[in-house]
Amino acid sequence: MGEGGEDYKKFSNKKRGVEGQQIGENGKKKKGQVIKREVLKKISSTVFASIVAPAILDEVVEASEGRNGVSIKLPELPPPQPNEDVLITMMRDLQKALQKPMEQRKWVMVIDLRKCVGCHACTISCIAENKLPPGVVYRPVIEEEIGKYPNVARRFLPRPCLQCENPPCVPVCPVNATWKRPDGIVVVDYKACIGCKYCISACPYGARTSDYGEYYSDGTPEKVQYEELPSYEYHYKWKRRKKRLLGIILYEQSPIGNVLKCHFCLHRIERGLLPQCVTTCIGRATFFGDANDPESLVSKLIAQPNVMRLKEELGTNPRVFYLM
Amino acid sequence: MESLKIKDMAIGLRYGRLLLIGVAILGAIGIIGVIQRLGWGHKWTNSGSYIPWGLWVVAYAYFVGISSGSFLLSSLLTYVFRIHVLKKIGVAPLITAIIALFLGLISIWFDLGHMERVYYVFTRPNFNSIMALIVWLYTAYFIFLILELYLALRVAASDTPKSPLSRLSNERALRILGVLASLGILLDIAISGGVGALFGTVSARPMWHNPLYPIFFILLAMISGGGVLMAVVAFLYPMLEEEREAVLKSIGRVVAAIMIFELLLEWAEFSIPMWYGVYGEEIKNMKLILFGPSWWVFWIIHLLIGFVVSLVLIFAGRKTWQWGLAGLLITLGFAASRYYNIVIPGLITPVLPGLEEAFVDHRLRHEYVPSISEWLVFIFLIAVGVFLIYIANLLLVHGKFVQINLKEETKQ
Ligand code: SF4
Ligand code: SF4
């Protein structure tokens, strides 16, 4: 199927619902520990340089997660400056949040509709990051046209998964394959999902899509290599393959057949990187951070009076805020 | 066989060969869809991520409805309302219920993205999910039906000298069967109402999110199951001709009454939100049902053929085939179209306007017409169902099991 390290095991751990508890090496439950920066080591990383937009971030810091001996690398940041790029500010907020146990973080996203230019860069970068197949989209940008020609205005509304506080997509799952983590991210366990699509019906925002096993290069003579690349969602190396015999499908490997959704780029944020859509937003219209930290940029933004959330009346309590 | 007169063989059994040929043709065409599904996954289905459930989910709700409804209706009429003539149809509702349940589970199984993981519902269930709950209930129901059939056959065995089953004294058996039937009624209500709750609890879909949904589904189950029972009794079940007529008349009238009541509720369901037409997302879905491109499903199939024509056949009919036909029109017309008009239009209006245009893909559309492949699977399941019901009824007559309900004639 694919490969996954310690982090994936933690992710798919059955005890995931237990707030702040992790399974330690000896199999006993331990209280989640604070990520400590132990070693600061400069490594020049061309990989990060290409993924993370600001060139300044091509230095990474290695930090060790005292808990299971898993070491993670956090990018090193320049000292705070007035007028710095908000991406740097948000990365600083992000790293600060990672110092805390998971259950004390509250990830939120803020999208400034006044700044969104409708370029769809976020949609595309998300597809590239998560290797999304045809028919699967995590963050479409809805375009609205107001008025009649010639008095027309346009409005753009990017729609990631809203990571609802009270997610209607979770309790419907017959096999507990989807749940809300203590830090607020609603995740799907691809190895458990049976593909019943009940959660798709239950999401009031259309944020879940199903992988129907298609490829962009279907019907063309050549299979594009890009489509065979693995994705790294949930800290696991997912190889999207079909096992065939004489053209007949014997088995389809996850995530084919599963329901997929935006997870705020969990695999990135736990490595100290911003979600890909935030990084690539050319209008700097998307913000991300920890709402439990009153000093964070997002906390300040959502305290403004011009905040709006989608379909508030449903009581889903989304964690994606829009600035009008 | 001595006890059986040819006139008491139902038309379907008398012309069994013709029926078998018809079923074989349907099955041969339909199996293409099954092969497509098993060999190529969901490649040829028309559902997508914005309309995640299609014809196979409709078929699932429909077949499960037939299963629970046929048994619920006959148990209620026999044991609660004590319409004794219905005892004459003996195991017909049981056979129908078992076969329909099997078909329903196959169709929902085909709809899964990972068919091989279906057992997870047992190994890692979330009992908060209606879907998990009803799968467990189906399992209980299936075991119950098999047990009930076994006991019923043993009771019947006491009248059949050559039956391979050991006899069960009538008194004891009736006691056990009575207790089981009441348990069955509860299970039936839970299952048919549960399918209603499966849709009704989804607050994201305004048309489904209706507290009356479980009630609709219980009524629909009895209507679709009653229709199938009428067809089975008219065309397949071996019994005395006079009794056949009496049974058909009473089931027909009851089913007609339930249909009228269901229609009354439908009127309420549509007219209340639509009357002033000021607020409510569900108005869009309802307008689609009534005046959208598939308007004929509601007006022609549901109302005209399913309701009006079958009502005329029930009340003006003189021959058994007319009642049998009414049963078919009720189940395939009135009930199936209603299931369709619940599942698909409930999903068809976008949860957020503009979603379809925001990212264009054939799996991200708000239009749905079942693909040929989906229809083929449905046709295959119908063919399998008719074939199994036919074989079961044939076994009752020709097999060594029982010569059900014909004993009176032997005595005469
Ligand atoms: S937006 Fe949809 S998928 Fe995301 S948490 Fe809310 S209900 Fe679930
Ligand atoms: S599609 Fe997967 S995640 Fe969604 S409800 Fe079904 S099993 Fe759960």
Molecular structure report:
The complex is a heterodimer of chains A (324) and B (412). With 324 residues, chain A is of the alpha+beta class. Chain A is built from eight helices and 19 strands. Chain A has a single domain, classed as Alpha-Beta Plaits (2-Layer Sandwich). Helix content of chain A is 17%, strand content 24%. In chain A, the strands form eight sheets. Chain A has a four-stranded mixed β-sheet with strand order 17-7-19-18. In chain A, a hairpin with a 4-residue loop joins strand 5 and strand 6. Chain B has 412 residues and is mainly alpha-helical. Chain B has a single domain, classed as Formate dehydrogenase/DMSO reductase domain (Formate dehydrogenase/DMSO reductase fold), CATH 1.20.1630.10. Chain B is globular and about 70 Å long. The chains are: A alpha+beta (324), B mainly alpha (412). Bound molecules: iron/sulfur cluster (2 copies).
